């Protein structure tokens, strides 16, 4: 299906998690949670898709060792669509700027953008519901990047409700230490618990009022295990942050400062 098209390039943005509470472990091995996904272009990847002369070709430029290209979510996204629609091979070139193991969703964003770009390049008749289904096969937070607007997420992160949250009046700073935290490692130290905090309501107030209410459950155990993480958060507050937190299950922290 369609072997000739003009190369397509996109800037792929990251996300931060504002609050992340682990409610319960599910029978399928995943966890129910509540969080708010918020898009940010503080870090970006560049994704370019071009026609391929023969076999599919995947190239990646990264300062980090991200393992075998065969395991990259961009390739997995392509193969799903090729299996279902018989699309022709392409060349995918990914330039990484979003750090890995950071809780910023870089791999998930790459996967979602690959799905969207291939759908548009090949004009595939894929419904919104089917796109979400494909995305979920690649990761719990991949569906967020299909929409890329602030959402309140529950379930394993795939049940999303748009929320009116605009942080453009604040300056965002993200600190990513040279520490990689796997999702498995992060969840190992968490005890799921019910929460009486409803994030969409709390986030209607200003960031300086979020402290002690908008929490990331991964911080408590990881701070004990990796004291440097506590130090990063403390330093953000010392610099004048109105609110600071770990993002997702990774090692990156963000601070919201007066503009």
Q: What is the fold named in CATH at topology level of the largest domain?
A: Ribosomal Protein S5, domain 2
Strand content: 25-35%
Percentage of residues assigned to helices: 25-40%
The rounded Rg comes to: 19 Å
Q: Count of DSSP E strands? A: 9
Structure description:
The protein has 259 residues and is α+β, with helices and mostly antiparallel strands. 29% of the residues lie in helices and 29% in strands. It has helices at 73-85, 106-121, 128-138, 144-147, 183-188, 199-202, 218-225, 227-238, and strands at residues 8-25, 31-51, 57-61, 90-95, 151-154, 159-162, 170-175, 243-246, 253-258. Helix 1 (73-85) links the parallel strand 3 (57-61) and strand 4 (90-95). The longest helix has 16 residues, at 106-121. The radius of gyration is 19 Å and the shape is globular. The N and C termini lie far apart (49 Å). The model has no long low-confidence stretch (mean pLDDT 93).
Short description:
With 259 residues, this protein is of the alpha+beta class. It contains eight helices and nine strands.
Based on the model shown, name its key terms.
259 residues; alpha+beta; Ribosomal Protein S5, domain 2; Alpha-Beta Plaits; 2 domains; three-stranded antiparallel sheet; 29% helix
Strand and helix map with partners:
Blueprint: E1 8-25, E2 31-51, E3 57-61, H1 73-85, E4 90-95, H2 106-121, H3 128-138, H4 144-147, E5 151-154, E6 159-162, E7 170-175, H5 183-188, H6 199-202, H7 218-225, H8 227-238, E8 243-246, E9 253-258
Parallel strand pairs: 3-4
Antiparallel strand pairs: 1-2, 2-4, 2-5, 5-6, 7-9, 8-9
Helix pairs in contact: 1-2, 2-3, 7-8
